[in-house]
Amino acid sequence: MLVAGWSFTNACNLRCKHCYNASGKRKSSELTLEEAKNVADKLKDAGVVAVNFGGGECALRIDFISLCEYLHSLDIKISYTTNGTSWHIIKDHLHLFHDIGVSIDFADAKRHDDFRGASGVFDKAKDCIRNLVAYGVNTEIVTCLTKLNCSEDELKKIYLLAKEFKVDYWRLNRFRANGRGIDNKSHLALTKKELRRAYAFLASHMDRSASVPEPLFRAAFGGAYSMEGDPSGFTAFRIQPDGEVSPSVFLKESGGNIKTMDVTEILDSEIFRKIRTRSPRGKCRQCSAYAHCRGGDAGASYLEYNHFNGPDPLCWLKSNDKIAPVIFRIGKNWNIHERYLCTVYVPMREGGSANA
Predict the structure, then answer these.
(1) CA neighbor of 301 nearest in space, from 272, 324, 281
(2) 211 φ, ψ to 5°?
(3) pLDDT, tens digit, for every residue of 230-258?
(4) Which pLDDT score, from 0 to 100, does residue 21 have?
(5) In this structure, what DSSP letter does residue 252 have?
């Protein structure tokens, strides 16, 4: 069962400081709609059950909804991660989406807008969230966890905002220094101590039986999981705007172009074989959490060490630390990002629509 991420366009109306895709202007090499439909057919044939659109602001392409309609006709679930400025484009097509995540990195307008590179974005994101919840869409607030917002005070503010809006989930991705994030690494990159404190706060606000796709979080604080380690390259891959396919959402390294290659060929490429044959290095060799952690975030390891073998660059655990209990569970219903990337889900309300 495969999940594909898809950066349908590099176009974006914002200039976010952390953007791993360095999104901004649309590129001439982007797939046409007909090429994208051919890709969708290949995804279906390969057993892809869900697609997450992200990267640039995909709805800025006038043919985005047409592609979503085609994927929907193939019975492929669609997830969309948006900066919140595209409500007017998607509002009449909500039935196409399994879930929609809206980015909120700070709980106040000034800091959020500064981080995202444009004024008025915070208010638009809030309006988008309110509308999505009102229409009963499975809605997430998505936060990029950085040095600037990792304190308990900042996280509590976003948590309370998520509670106020009654979203289904608050989902957090820690900062990876790629794309535009490379230029801002010095003031965005987390230390091990900062990540540990942030994760401890999140752990104190969530049910430990909740699914935790982030291996390091799970190793330190426990939780349920449906697959070992990082899903990148195993159950997930990322299609770039020009059709190149990467094993991790945060990497540009390609296993081939899906315009000319089948998914099975790409998954058998050298870079995909490397990410699937991780082996323990350093403290991972003695760590009892390795059985389910597998060295943590493979993409982060590659960015730091130029290999996928770990240990996770932000892992603070020692080999003899007491490891939190975990539960292996494959549920009938699951969130798309559970099998897509290392992320932390914080369930925000009972009876949410996430299992729809």
Answers:
(1) 281
(2) -70, 135
(3) 999 999 999 999 999 999 998 999 999 99
(4) 82
(5) -
- Amino acid 331: pLDDT: 73
Instruction: Report the C-alpha gap between 213 and 11 in whole angstroms.
Output: 29
**Whole-angstrom distance, CA of residue 160 vs CA of residue 103:** 15
Q: Where are the alpha helices (DSSP H) in the chain?
A: 33-46, 64-73, 87-90, 109-116, 121-134, 152-165, 185-188, 192-203, 215-221, 263-267, 270-276, 290-293, 298-305
Alpha carbon distance 78, 67 (integer Å):
10
Secondary structure of residue 132 in the 3-state scheme? helix
C-alpha distances in Å from residue 261, one per residue of 4, 65, 264:
15, 25, 8
Residue count of the chain: 356
Q: What are phi and psi of 103, to 5 degrees?
A: -75, 125
Q: Is 222 left (phi over 0), alpha (psi -120 to 50) or beta?
A: left
Closest Cα partner for 229 from 313, 110, 320, 312? 312
* DSSP state letter for 26: P
**Pairing of β 48-53 and β 77-82:** parallel
CB 292 within 8 A of CB 215: yes
pLDDT bracket for residue 174 (50, 70, 90) = very high
Are 282 and 311 in contact, with CB atoms under 8 Å apart?
Answer: yes
Burial of 223 (0-12, 13-18, 19+ CB in 10 A): buried
Residues of 241-274 as b/e, b for ≥16 C-beta within 10 angstroms? bbbbbbbbbbbebbbbebbebebeebbebebbeb
Q: What residues form DSSP beta bridges with 102?
A: 82, 141
